[in-house]
Amino acid sequence: MALLLRQLWSPEDETSDVVELLTFPLHQAPTSFCPTLWFTTKNYSTWQEALEHCREHHTDLSSMVFETENLLALREMKPLNIDRVWIGLRYLGDRWLWVNGDPLEYEAWGGVQDHQCPLLKRCGALTIRGQWENRDCHEKLNFICY
């Protein structure tokens, strides 16, 4: 089980540099599958573009099912000076869902409560403070895949 940082495709030079940072257990998952997290450091995308990229090159946008996953992602964001990243959280119908189908049991929403019934900001991001924010889906951010 490992947490890896990966610099993905860059529109400037179209390269893929891979850097392994840490190796340790992510969490005690009920199955033998343990996701590997991939951060983008140059590829700013809308939420939909990030979702498509993750599904094409990895598995999906990352879900933060456990607090441990949230904390590990935060730990890797800080040295990279990334303020916020897209995660696989989306407001559909009348509730927030993880797009990969994981249950939304653990929550880490920030101070403002506009996530409860968002009119325009219907996509989720993880901030450098370790909190989730609802953001405009057309905003361009870095993102985390697994």
Care to describe what's here?
This protein is an alpha+beta fold and 146 residues long. The two termini are 12 Å apart. Strand 6 (123-127) and strand 7 form a beta hairpin. The strands form two sheets. Strands 3, 4, 5, 6, 7 and 8 form a six-stranded mixed beta sheet that branches. The model is unreliable at 1-34 (pLDDT under 50). It is built from two helices and eight strands. InterPro entries: C-type_lectin-like, C-type_lectin-like/link_sf, C-type_lectin_CS, CTDL_fold. Residues 33-146 form the C-type lectin domain. Keywords: Disulfide bond.
What Rg do the Cα atoms give? 14 Å
Mean pLDDT: 76
β-strand number: 8
Gross geometry: globular
Structural class: alpha+beta
Instruction: Tell me about the largest β-sheet.
Output: 6 strands, mixed
Which residues sit in consecutive blocks of at least 5 with pLDDT less than 50? 1-34
Q: Separation of termini? A: 12 Å
Strand content: 25-35%
Helix percent band: 10-25%
SS element count, helices:
2
Protein name: C-type lectin domain-containing protein
Domain C-type lectin: 33-146
Pfam family, one: Lectin_C
InterPro entries: C-type_lectin-like, C-type_lectin-like/link_sf, C-type_lectin_CS, CTDL_fold
What brief labels describe this structure?
single chain; alpha+beta; six-stranded mixed beta sheet; two-stranded antiparallel ribbon; C-type_lectin-like; CTDL_fold; C-type lectin domain-containing protein; disulfide bond; C-type_lectin_CS
